[in-house]
Automatic annotation (TrEMBL):
One Pfam family in the UniProt entry: Glyco_transf_49
Domain of life: Eukaryota
Organism of origin: Laodelphax striatellus
Record protein name field: N-acetyllactosaminide beta-1,3-N-acetylglucosaminyltransferase
Ranges annotated as biased composition (Polar residues): 195-206
Signal peptide coordinates: none
Alphabetically ordered keywords of this record: Membrane, Transmembrane, Transmembrane helix
Ranges for region Disordered: 194-241
Residues passing through the membrane, by range: 18-39, 124-141
Length: 622
């Protein structure tokens, strides 16, 4: 075994990495052999007193009965134990004759050797071990210095170090692009290896190997991006940068499909029935945009006109405390049995209520739809002629937790892009395909580094006015006074969109393609702007301590977006119109008192928290 190991490690590639293993085996066996010698010497010298007359010849071996002496206790106080030791005669005789272990007298009795002689021989064995180890190390060093394999190792390590440095730099740049909302393919520079003409054949081969590894890694990365939807993404509107001829929505939009399974969860002081009644159609996460909204059952008359214009997935959170729960179920049945197929196809209903106002009975979501067509559609819908005073929440003086509903609906969306809005705001027709086509074109504004959201201009209509089907029709209504900017008579600064006049004077593009009209910020004159936009679930959520009655329920999110340096990409042809009927400012002392409490909560509690969590930025305010 010893000679086989020496022959193996004497191979010309001893200087290669696996030669290190041979070196370690050499040194381990050598030290083990010498340690065994020392152990045998100490064992027989210090423990055993051997009686030569007890040797019994047995073939090629001898059986040795040894009396064990405890070395300090009177032998009359202990019993003699016998230990049978089998050893080679030649090996033991050599040790005995050398005087290293024991000595013989002329009568055949074996006695202890000289302690001085024993220590001297141990020292020589240790010195011999050190010398042999140095010889083996010197032998290994000569191979590294003389063989090309050793130079290959050194050059490989140097090249690997440069390669790792280049990869770390590229990964840092890639990470920055992802954090800023743009994910791109590795640059060509990261895949090019420059080889100096002065380098020899060996260096060239090492460089070629490194090029092969990098090319393989890049190809693998490209393949994963082509077959997978990507990671979690960065800020709102995150898309990947790819050559336009090769791009698809699945490659550009970083998302993963997930199921809309029903489950019950607790959210602060509220119980939530997530996906209580799910939509029949479930698009891939990159295929559509989800309209996320909230309401109680008295507002569900807005669902049908919303679907007629949206024609895409809707995530709807319904507030149903106490006895309002039963009426909410009746309304869902009515919509699914008597409404258009768009309700069954696109709308997913979630229901939430306070923990102190749980309904007496909660059937399974699929149970309420067990008998389709059982609803009497000749009867008026449940929401018709219902007043706010008839609601359970009004009788119990419960506030409407608007931001709880907003967050439930948004979190439950299964698409990457979402449009968090109010159920009374109807989008312009064709918004989903036009927006996704814009994403697919990868125009320069979408590739900017900052996180971004896509803002829709909002308008109110006079009562009994028909809904505009495109921007040209909307502009005509604004000019004749039948349409105005949203909340113009209630809170002009809350929804005043930057460049709003220029937006109205800019005709849609001749190609009818949606584009980014202007990139705005929530600063200066627009410091209290409450935009409604297409974003993602990576954007900041709404503070659930604020209520609809207390107002200012979206201001804290607006401040967070400003501090995070979000860009507000205003779309040139997309818009929202409120349910017909222009709102005017009305005095409401009770709501004014609640508004004062909300403002105090924001200024004294929420705003200091936001400054700690997100920091501050010049020009940003709640």
């Amino acid at each position: 075994m010893w000679y086989l190991l020496i022959a193996l490690c004497s191979h010309p590639y001893y200087g290669s990495p696996y030669g290190v293993l041979c070196l370690l085996l050499h040194m381990t066996l050598l030290n083990g052999f010498l340690s065994a010698l020392l152990f045998d010497a100490a064992f027989l010298q210090d423990i055993f007193t051997v009686n030569w007359n007890n040797f019994l010849e047995f073939g090629d071996f001898v059986e040795l009965d040894c009396d064990v002496d405890d070395g300090g206790i009177d032998q009359s106080d202990i019993s003699t134990e016998y230990i049978d030791i089998i050893m080679y005669v030649e090996y033991q005789s050599a040790l005995v004759s050398s005087g290293m272990l024991v000595s013989f007298d002329l009568d055949g009795n074996i006695g202890n050797g000289s302690s001085k002689t024993m220590l001297t021989r141990r020292n020589w064995v240790l010195r011999f071990s050190i010398v042999l180890n140095l010889v083996v190390l010197f032998y290994f060093g000569t191979h590294i210095a003389s063989k090309n394999g050793g130079m290959d190792i050194i050059e490989e390590l140097q090249q690997s170090g440069r390669e790792l440095a280049a990869m770390e730099e590229e990964m840092a740049q890639e990470g920055g692009r992802r954090l800023n909302g743009v994910q791109s393919m590795p640059s060509a520079a990261a895949l090019v290896v420059h080889t100096s003409p002065q380098q020899g054949t060996t260096s060239q081969s090492v460089s070629d190997k490194r090029q092969t590894r990098l090319s393989t890694t890049a190809a693998s990365t490209t393949e994963r991006k082509e077959t997978s939807s990507g990671g979690s993404g960065g800020g709102g509107g995150t898309v990947s940068a790819l050559p336009q001829s090769e791009a698809t929505l699945q490659m550009l939009i970083p998302c993963h499909d997930r199921d809309a399974l029903p489950f019950t969860g607790q959210r602060g002081d509220f119980w939530v029935l997530y996906n209580y009644v799910a939509a029949a159609r479930r698009p891939h996460c990159w295929e559509s945009v989800t309209y996320t909204t909230h309401a109680d059952y008295t507002f569900l008359d807005n669902l049908q006109p919303l679907l007629d214009r949206w024609r895409g997935p809707v995530s709807l959170a319904l507030y149903a405390p106490g006895t309002d729960f039963a009426q909410t179920l009746n309304t869902i049945r009515y919509l699914k049995d008597c409404g258009s197929d768009l309700v069954n196809e696109f709308v997913t209903f979630h229901i939430y209520f306070p923990s102190k106002h749980i309904p007496k009975q909660i059937p399974r979501g699929d149970a309420i739809l067990a008998e389709p067509g059982s609803t009497n559609c000749s009867l008026p819908p449940p929401w018709l002629n219902q007043t706010a005073g008839a609601l359970y929440k009004t009788r119990k003086k419960l506030l409407y937790p608007v931001n709880v509903g907003r967050n439930i609906a948004r979190e439950s969306a299964t698409t990457h892009f979402v449009l968090p809005s109010d159920i009374e705001l109807y989008p312009s027709p064709g918004l989903i395909p036009e927006f996704l086509a814009m994403v697919l074109r990868q125009e320069p504004p979408l590739l900017r580094k900052n996180p971004k959201v896509f803002v829709l201009s909002i308008f109110e209509l006079e009562s009994n006015m028909h809904l505009p089907v495109n921007k040209n029709e909307l502009v005509s209504m604004v000019r004749n006074g039948s349409a105005i900017s949203f909340h113009k008579k209630v809170c002009p600064g809350c929804h005043n969109v930057p460049k709003s006049k220029e937006w109205l004077n800019t005709a849609p593009s001749a190609s009818a393609q949606m584009r980014v009209f202007h990139i705005g910020k929530r600063t200066g004159y627009f410091v209290h702007w409450e935009p409604i936009f297409i974003g993602t679930n990576h954007d900041p959520f709404y503070d659930e301590r604020l209520s609809w009655e207390g107002k200012s329920d979206k201001m804290t999110q607006g401040y967070t977006l400003c501090v995070l340096d979000y860009e507000f990409h205003i779309l040139d042809s997309a818009f929202l119109v409120h349910k017909p009927g222009i709102k005017t400012l009305k005095k409401d002392p009770a709501r004014a008192a609640l508004s004062a409490k909300s403002n105090a909560l924001i200024s004294r509690v929420i705003f200091p928290e936001l400054k700690v969590l997100y920091g501050t930025r010049r020009g940003c305010a709640v």
